[in-house]
Amino acid sequence: MLVKMQMTMMMTLAMLAGIALADGEILSEEIGENLLLNLSCDDGEYLNIESARYWAPHSFMGLCTDQHDAFEKTSNHCNLKGSCSINTSPGSFFGDPCWGAWKKLAVSYICQTCDEGELFVERVGCQEVPAVIQVLPQVLPQVLPPVQPYRNDNRCGPKFPLGDGSASQCNPGRCCSRQGRCTNKTKQCKVKGRK
Predict the structure, then answer these.
(1) What is the pLDDT along the chain (195 residues), one digit of tens a residue?
(2) 52: burial class by Cβ within 10 Å (0-12, 13-18, 19+)?
(3) What secondary structure letter does DSSP report for 186?
(4) Would you call 14 helix, strand, or coil by DSSP?
């Protein structure tokens, strides 16, 4: 318990001083009740909640207390995601720590990135990318065979293009007829430019 209090105090002091405890800048959002708080990071980054407080700043004679598990609930809901939303309506996400009083939510967070050679997986975190996958883009063009200009259905010519849009051809020793069929009958293929 003492360690948790010390960590919370350290994060609060760092937040007030504007010091980042991790690899990103500490960002803060504060909104009133009955609203939707949207937290988000850039592509490839993920949320790390530093602090969260849900409370009634103007409670009757100061009798109301903070929602004590606001940090835990917010962390569980948002950490390791690229973005998250929190409903601040009383009784929804946090419950209602002070019935009848207007409440606020304040959240401080960091958008973190993975180290080089790691890939971010939502709700899991940074995962090491196997070396095979890292070199795949350089190796694939050398390993893959060239695309053949033939179709499997014996159709050919510009009316029957390949996947890349170019005109298909017939296998060697065959020619393309006027009807777009591959054939051995050369009389049907005596048209200029047909292969």
Answers:
(1) 333 333 344 444 444 444 434 457 899 999 999 999 999 999 889 999 999 999 888 766 666 767 778 999 999 999 999 999 999 998 888 888 788 888 899 999 999 999 888 888 888 888 888 765 665 666 555 555 566 778 888 888 888 888 778 888 888 888 888 888 888 877 767 655 444
(2) buried
(3) G
(4) helix
Extract the tokens encoding 169: 């051809």
Structure pTM? 0.55
* C-alpha span between 168 and 43 (Å, rounded): 40
Residue 164 zone, left/alpha/beta (φ > 0; ψ -120 to 50; rest): alpha
- What's the CATH number of domain 2-131, 2.60.40.10, 2.60.300.12, 3.40.50.1370, 2.60.120.740? 2.60.120.740
Neighbours of 50 (CB within 10 A): 23
Structure tokens at 97: 């720590």
User: How many CB atoms lie under 10 A from the CB of residue 61?
Assistant: 5
Where exactly are the structural domains of the chain?
2-131, 157-189
Between CA 64 and CA 71, with CA 68 as vertex, the angle to 5 degrees is: 135
Helix or strand holding residue 17 (H, E): helix 2-17
Cβ atoms within 10 Å, residue 31: 15
